[in-house]
Every structure is written in C-alpha cells, then in structure tokens.
Amino acid sequence: MIFAVISGFILAALVPLFSSFARNLIPKIYPFLPLGIFIYLGTCFSQVTQNAPMHWSYNWVPSFGVNLDFRLDGLALLFGMLITGIGTLVFFYSSYYLKEDKYLDRFYGYLSMFMAAMLGLVLSDNLISLFVFWELTSISSFFLIGYKNDDPSSRKSALMALGITGFGGLVLLAGLIWIGFVGGSYSIIELVNSSELIKSHEAYPWIIGLLFIGAFTKSAQFPFHFWLPGAMKAPTPVSTYLHSATMVKAGIYLLARFTPVLGGTDSWNWTLILVGGITMLYAAAHSLFRTDLKSILAYSTISALGILVFLLGVGTEDALLAAGIFILTHALYKATLFLITGIIDHETGTREVTSLGGLQKVMKPVALAGYLAALSSAGVPLFLGFISKEIMYESTFHFSNWAIILTASIVLTKVFLFVAGFWVGIKPFTGNLPQEHAKAKMPSPLLWIPPVFLAGLCVLFGVFPGILDAFMQTVFNSMSPEGEVIHLALWHGLNWVLVLSLLTLGLGFALYKFLKPSQSLKGKLAPFDKFAPIELMERIGITFQSFAGSWTGFFQNGYLRNYVISILIFLTVLAGYRLYDGVDIHLDWSQISDITPSEFLVVVLMVTSIFFALITKTRTGVIVALGIIGLANCLFFLYYSAPDLAMTQFSIDTLTVLLFMLVLFQLPKNRSFSTRKLRVRDGALSLMFGVLISILALEVFEAPSYTEVSEYYAENAYLLAKGKNVVNVILVDFRGIDTLVETVVLVIAAMGVFSLLKLNLNPFNKE
Amino acid sequence: MELLLIFIIGLLHAAGIYMLLRRSMFKMIIGLILLGNGVNLLIFLLGRLVKGKPPVIDEASKVFTEIYADPVPQALILTAIVIGFGLQSFAIILIKRVYKVLETDDLDDLNSTDEEI
C-alpha cells in the first residue's frame, strides 16, 4: 500500500530526469499510474465491502507518534476510487488536451504529486501524516492552478488559493495536535473510542472550531469560498480533477472522518448546518449570475460542497447516507460537465454560455454526455442524482422542528443547481449553431470518451442503484459505525418526498425557460462587490503588506547607529530591569585593594585621554590619545601580574598607532556631522550603557569565582606540557588549535589589508 | 583600586558606544578600539586583581606553591588583543579605501547598495 501512495511522488520526482530524453513518452506512460492504483484498490474492494477494513503500518517518526498508518475502509475506498478513477480519465484527457503545451512533462509531475498526496490524505489513519498529505495537496494544487505562469491573474489565483488553504492547514494542525493531546492518541480509529472523553473536554469547542476552519478553507465554504472561482484559471483538466472531484472534497472527507469522533453535539451540528446552508444557497444563487461556463461550474461546485457540509451537519443516518451518495453523484456529473466544458473551450475557443449553442450537430457524443450529466445534476428519475436527492429530502424532512426551513432551503438550492446544470450541460448543445463556431469539429476520442464514460455511470447507477448497496453500506458505516442496513432503491413509494422532488424539477424547468444567462445579470452584482469576502481579504492582504513594509522600514532602516541604539535600549532595559528587580549590591571591602600613587596617576592619565579622544578635533590628537589609553592599559596589566598581556598590548598598541600614522593623511578628517541635540541623546544613551556595565561588573565581582579550570591548567602546565609560563602553555598547548585558527584569522586580515592597500580597483578611474 | 577600574571600564564602554553612534567613519573606528579596550579590562578585572604574582611557575618547583594570578582570563585577553588588532587594521584600511573611492566619510551616504553616480 505504501508503494501505491508514494509511487506518485516517485514518478513526480523522476520527471526532470526523464524529460531530458523521454519528454514525449511521459504523457503516454503516466496515465497508467492512476489506472494501476485503481485496479489495485479494486482488488481490495470485496474485502473492504465485507466490513473488514484493511490496515498497513509503517514507522516514520515513532518517538513523536507519527507513523504512516494507512487504513482502507469504506470512506477511504470511495475517495480512493474517485481519486484514481477520475484521475485516470483526467490523465488520459490531458495528454490530448494539453498536447501542444511545452511544459506538459512538468504538468504530469505536478498531477502525479497531487494524486499521491490526495491518496495519502484519505488513507492516513495518523493525524500528523494526514496533515502532511493535506498540506502537500495544497502545495501541488498551487503549482497546478498557477500552471499558466506567464499569466499574472493565474499567478494571483494560485497564490490566493495557497494562502487560504495553507492558512486553513495550519489552523487544522493546531486542531489535530489538540485532538491528539486530549484523546491520548494520533490514530483516528483509536480516537473513536475516546470520543465521549473528547466531547466532554473543555477544549472541545476550540478543537472543532480549528477543525472547521481547516475543512471550510479547503472545501471553499462561506466566507472562504472565493479562492475556488479564482482557481478556475487552471487548465480545465485540473479544475475537473482538483476542484470538483477530489481536493475540494478533502474538507468534506475530514468532516466525515471525524463525525464518529467529534460529531453529534449541538455545536457540531448547527455550525455545519448554518455554514453549509449559507454556502449552498449563496453559491447556487451566485451561479445564475455568471456567463462563463467554468464560473457557473465553480459556483455550483461550491454550492454542492455546501450541501455536503449541510448534510453532515444534519447528521442523522439518512443525512450521512445522503452525503455518501452525493459525494459519488456529484463527482460523476460535475467531472463530466467540467470535461465537456474543456472540450467546448478547446474546439470553439470560448466558454461564454451566451455565445454558444447548437453544438450537438458537430459533436454528438459530447452532447450526449452533457445531457446525461445535466439530467443527473437536476435529479431526474433514472439518474443517480435522483436517488441522492430523494435521500437528502428524506433526511431534512424528518429533522425535528426545523424540518420545513431546512427542506425549503435545500429545495431552493436544488432548483438553482438544476438551472446551472442545464446551462452548462444542455444550453451549449441545443438551439442554433452560431456562424462563428460552424467550423468546430469532433474532438479526439481521448477527449470525448472520459465524459461519456462518466455520464454512462450516472445512468448505470441510477437505473440499478442496488449494485451500490454493499459499497455504500461500508461508506455509511465509516461515518456511523452502528448504522442500520441500507438499501438503495429507485422507487420510494408515493410520499411527500416524491412530491418535493417533482416540485423541484418543475420549478427548475420553469426557471430555466424563464431565465437566460446574460451579461446584464452579471452586472447587477457589481455594486455588491465591495462587500464580497474576496475584496475584504485583498484589503487585509494589502494592509498587512504595508504594515510589514513600515515595520521593516522602522527597524531595518539602513542606519548603523539606529541598529546600535535599538540593541542598546533593549539590552539596557532588560538587564536594568533585572538589576532593579532584586539584586542588592553590597561591597566586601576586604576584597578591595588599596590605591598606590603610581596607579592613581595612571588612572588619571587614562581618564584624561579618554575625554581628550572624545572632544579633540584633530586626527593626530585622537590617535595619540588612543596610544596613551593603550599604554595605560598596558601598565595595569603590568601592575597586576600579567607580563604577557603587557608585552602584547605594548607591541599591538605601537603597531596600531604606526598603522594609523601610515595612512593618516589618506583618512577622512575627524569631523562632526550630528547636531547638538543628537549628541546629547547619544551621550545620555552611552552613559546609561556605561553605568549598566559598571554595575554588572560590580555585581559579578561580588559573586564568588570558580577557578577549577584555572587550577587544572596551573597544576598541569608543567606536569603535562612541560612549560612554566601557564598563559603561554594554555595558548600554544592546551588550546593550541584555537591559536592556530587565530593565526589563520590574522593572516586573512593581513591579506585583506594588503590587497586593499595595493590593488587599484577604483571604478571611477576606469571611466 | 577595583572600584577605580570599574569606573574606567564603564567610562571606556560609554565612550566607545558614543563614538560608535557618530556618523563619521573615523570616529566609528575610534569607538571600536575604545570598546575593545574596555572589554579587555572587564575580563581582566573579573579574573580578580593579584599583585606581583604572575602565573609563572618557579624555577625550582613543578607546581605552584603560593597564590598566583588567574591564567585563563589572561589567555583570553591575549587572544582578544591580537584578534582585535586584526579587526582594527582591516577596518582602518577599509575606511581609507572607502574614503578614497566614494569621497565621503558620512555613514549616511553609504546606506544604500545602489551606486549613485
């Protein structure tokens, strides 16, 4: 199983390797990957449908509880077959659809990566690996949406999709970790047992809140829905695959997967009903204001996702069953509609529904697929859509006191979707063929077979729903482990649900006849644009960007002294607070030595030279003052038992002064640029720092000193290293390598100095 | 004496930072040198002051027989002095070069990577 999951990643990684010599083979070979996995999943079918989920486990990071645990149950199998099944068709379809594209090899790499990530996501039983695959789908979809990377709007859409889903993914990670923390396990199947514990925990509202944000961003629920219409910038096969059948359903999958763990509470149910309800109505109504085929499909997809969230929110057995069937139904008809949209776009060069018509004359099989998909979408009897719609109505119809409102809203949504489906699936094919599209011709079989095949399945399952019984039973049981035995049937008897169904069809047909897609309708929405979430999000983005800009500008302003000042203030405040907060300094006078006159003289000399260095206006003056400071330092070393230091300081000091003198007249003048006010400010700051250092020195001086290291060196200097000057022994023996590195540093500095002195690289002289 | 040294250390640090905050590159180097001196003295002081007892073992004995000055801070400072010299000399030559090429020693003229000719 792990091979099935990671083979996609492997093939994606191999693309750059192959593309140098076998570019043209890639589109011919890669479609067999999803096909192979689909067949493999097919072999697992009989075992899984006998309610015996299969399980594979591979250690990954066991110390963190992160394992590659794969579990194939009904729900995973449903998604797995959709991913690989529709994947196979899309892979074949793209090989013709994007035939002329020069980056086709890259495209297949992204697509394989996406498919593998999606498979991993639905098969993972481990929360953390689930998150990893979740993010991988976001990342690979970023590449796919932005595939036409020379188009700025395409890049923008990809960025927005990544921003929204990536943000949701991070929120989801927090939620998942929290679940694992509360439930004591990262395995979903084990968490089902601690379901009551998690639900009664005080963090439960937070957990489901975080989980919801993750699911809603991925599945384009209101108010995060706006990235999906933008993502339609992707090539049509990508939209088919990612934005109807698989990726956007990942959020639905997540909610369905966690229904047995977290579901069943009022806060779970009503949040989902509310968000799903708003999304399905809002998006369904929106789809009628669009004229671009893909935009219509995008909004109707959002609406369908809303229906799924809504059904999971209703949460009764009927509703969960309806959700399970609707996932399949929607994937089949929506993928078909997307694929035929791609064909229309490919053959006529337009997707404007207003300018399309009569195409059935030139592409009969495509038209057939369109009709069938539209009818399934509308829920006409003998189609799979009819069965899912029946169960949907059944579930809301029996839902406590709110039955009427919920049923009414879902009926209304279905009426809108009826029209949207007809616009895409029927309208372009009926009526008169416009003159400009007369030359449109029948596409290659690679393009028209996939949609016809999918549309055929809509009918097959619709006429003989019984063949889905066993499959849907296991899907249902993954969401509701103790669920009853189900039986799908075409005919549910004469009841209110059937009346509602007919009402939907009647109203939908009436609306289709009455309402024509038009640009003016689209224009009517324009005044509301500024309230749309997408506008809001863009404004937040721009504000954040300018905030980040000014923040960076404030701290990284390019002035060295401002950096020094920030560091100083931070350090002084932090250390100063610590000193203020509970350090009392008391001097132990017995540790303080006396002052001899000669020492005092050196101190006076030093203080005087420091002040002289500060105020003198001549370069020579400063250098002389520095020399005196160095020599005074040298004398301190001499007084207090450090002859080596005194010698070094003396020679170095002399060298520095010499070096200064050497280049003195090529150095800039000792000028003063700043105003008096600035000098006072800097003076105060540096004084503050000086006082702080003094206090710190005093405090450290008071603390007891630890001398084990020194004692070790002192004792072993002669015994181990045969040297009597301990400082020398430390430098050249105990820490010999350090000294070696130090000499290297000096050599590098010397080389730098030499080359700066000698080389003539003055760019101004060359001109 | 320690108190006087602490005062000097504070003074060296304050003077060093003050010079570092100037806009003139020349003063910046002076600040760097002053700061280096201050830090060396600080480390020296923290090794405690011992008079007339350098960490050198007597001719006659193999280990120390009486009190001695702490050798570790001395080794550290020795390294610091030498490395400090490397840094200073490089900095001196660098500003000489910069001054020659750009004909300015105002740091505020240098805070952009773009050559404005």
The chain-level structural class of chain B is mainly alpha
Which residues of chain A sit in consecutive blocks of at least 5 with pLDDT less than 50? none
Query: Count the strands of chain B?
Result: 0
Mean pLDDT figure of chain B: 85
Helix content of chain A: over 70%
Structural class of chain A: mainly alpha
Number of domains of chain A: 4
Question: Which fold name corresponds to the CATH topology of chain B?
Answer: Helix Hairpins
Specify the number of helices of chain A: 33
Number of helices of chain B: 3
Q: Most extensive chain contact?
A: A-B, 98 and 92 residues
Shape of chain A: elongated
**Major sheet summary line of chain A:** 2 strands, antiparallel
Unreliable runs of chain B: none
Biggest sheet features of chain B: none
The fraction of residues in strands of chain A falls at: under 5%
Instruction: Count the E strands of chain A.
Output: 2
* Number of self-contained structural domains of chain B: 1
Q: Quote the distance from N terminus to C terminus of chain B.
A: 56 Å
In a few lines, what is going on in this structure?
Chain A is an all-alpha fold. Chain A contains 33 helices and 2 strands.
Q: Can you walk me through this structure?
A:
The complex is a heterodimer of chains A (767) and B (117). Chain A is elongated and about 115 Å long. Chain A is built from 33 helices and two strands. Chain A has 767 residues and is an all-alpha fold. Chain B has three helices and no strands. In chain B, helix 1 (2-20) packs antiparallel against helix 2 and helix 2 packs antiparallel against helix 3 (71-102). The longest helix of chain B is centred in the C-terminal third of the chain and has 32 residues, at 71-102. The relative contact order of chain B is 0.14.
